[in-house]
Design goal:
This protein has 452 residues and is of the alpha/beta class. It has 2 domains: 333 residues, Rossmann fold (3-Layer(aba) Sandwich), CATH 3.40.50.12780; 84 residues, GMP Synthetase, Chain A, domain 3. The protein has 10 helices and 28 strands.
Length: 452
């Protein structure tokens, strides 16, 4: 992977260290031992994002396969991943790895220290890049891409010419964050990464001081930014949302806080790749996008979005893995959409519906209404077992700071929010219980953790 032409003064930075991109052209974080990994299948599982980024620069085109292992607290999935990817080696600085007796070679990166080293890339491999899917409860699905499928959507408009300072609320070991990493690399732009234990406020303060211009995250991560009290520390020119449904409340809030920024929400997935971008400030997407384009074709089947794309993943990795694409080469995204007035709106995941007495409820459509209430900052709708209907809908709600410090008691606020929902939703979709919580848990992928 080559650095873009604008990269002479650009850098990769975390809370602990900064590395000039120019040093990556002829540099090694592995002490020059990367040659030993030529043609091998390598798992990268470092404690911080910067070490992962430096290893990716070094090993693309050298390794036959790169597996991006997320920053999971345990190593439960590692034996499965090693077997499924036929891994020969692991690049890791994790001390808990030493407690395992691994049947593969172990390489320890040199803690952001780049040693001058030149690799022979004349017989370059088209390295496979493997990422985990998010939102799985058992062993993760392993999705196989190549650099062309990962970067096709980025380069479809031509090579970037503007020099930017990128930031990401995502982790680059997940698909959404990896896309930001590649955008920065291809344009030769700087990239500011968060540290493994860095708070949102600390990250925004550091990013603001370094002149961040472009920044990406999930809607849930952006809600946390707006709750942090530190949103004003950055003055971005461009804001990108992806990974979850971008409803109108979060788009409106970002427009209010960052009036100078171009705000885009994008749809994509590990399997389908990056599919489209929406730049008009409205939730959902125009029905005119459905059909066949030069690189991406979309259709709606059984109310579900399906995508056929030049940039879709190649396959799932591992024996016994399901087919990634349907027989017609479309990827079934599992995302349900609803057509209203010439615009499609995402309503939730097909496998995430709540069954209330035989009637289906999408948690996301309840949350979209809850988030419209002026006292609600973010919300999570979920199922609770009921002896009568099988399940009922309940909701965890994070209040805005003004509501938290106001003079209304909890019961009054709960009743007001429930009544607000009754005016917008059928009775079976109205939360039977509202619970106020200080925060909502996010997965390592940046998405809200849903336990249905």
């Amino acid at each position: 992977m080559s650095v873009g032409n604008n990269g002479s003064n650009s850098f990769l930075g975390s809370a602990e260290s900064y590395v000039a991109q120019a040093a990556l052209v002829r540099g090694s974080i592995l002490g020059g031992r990367g040659e030993e990994l030529r043609g091998r299948s390598v798992v990268i599982m470092t404690t911080d994002q910067l070490s992962t980024a430096l290893a990716l620069f070094e090993l693309d085109g050298i390794a036959r396969r790169i597996v991006l292992y997320p920053n999971e607290p345990t190593l439960n999935y590692l034996p499965f991943v090693i077997e499924a990817t036929n891994a020969d080696a692991v690049v890791s600085d994790r001390t808990d790895l030493l407690t395992l007796s691994l049947p593969i070679r172990h390489y320890v990166p040199q803690a952001h220290t780049i040693q001058s080293h030149s690799y022979d890339r004349t017989s370059q491999y088209e390295t496979e890049w493997i990422t985990f899917t998010s939102g799985t409860t058992g062993p993760p699905k392993l999705v196989v891409h190549t650099l062309p499928t990962l970067t096709g959507a980025i380069l479809s408009g031509g090579p970037p010419t503007q020099k930017m300072v990128w930031g990401t609320l995502y982790d680059i070991r997940r698909f959404g964050g990896l896309q930001v990493f590649l955008r920065a690399a291809l344009s030769g732009s700087s990239l500011i990464l968060s540290g493994p234990s860095e708070s949102i406020a600390s990250y925004l303060a550091r990013a603001g001081s370094l002149g961040i211009t472009h920044i990406s995250g999930t809607p849930s991560q952006w809600r946390r930014v707006l709750m942090s009290g530190a949103a004003s520390l950055i003055k971005p020119e461009y804001i990108r949302l992806s990974g979850e449904i971008a409803d109108q409340p979060i788009l409106n809030q970002l427009r209010s806080v960052y009036p100078q920024a171009a705000i885009t929400h994008a749809f994509g997935s590990s399997e389908a790749g990056t599919v489209f971008e929406v730049k008009d400030g409205a939730a959902g997407f125009s029905a005119g996008l459905i059909g066949c384009g030069p690189n991406v074709e979309m259709k709606i089947e059984d109310d579900t979005l399906r995508v056929r794309s030049r940039w879709a993943a190649i396959r799932y990795q591992g024996n016994g893995s399901p087919a990634l694409k349907c027989v017609d080469d479309f990827v079934d995204t599992g995302d349900l959409v609803d057509l209203r007035n010439g615009r499609y709106y995402f309503v939730g995941r097909r496998d995430g519906r709540i069954n209330v007495g035989g009637l289906k409820v999408h948690p996301e459509e309840v949350e979209a209404v809850l988030n419209l209430h002026p006292d609600v900052q973010m919300s999570l709708a979920r199922a609770k077992k009921s002896p009568v209907t099988g399940s009922i809908v309940i909701a965890d709600v994070v209040l805005t700071s003004s509501a938290q410090t106001g003079d209304r008691d909890e019961e009054t606020l709960q009743n007001e929010i429930v009544e607000f929902c009754r005016r917008a939703l059928p009775l079976h979709k109205v939360p039977a219980l509202i619970r106020f919580v200080p925060t909502l848990d996010l997965a390592e992928s940046g998405k809200m953790i849903r336990r249905l």
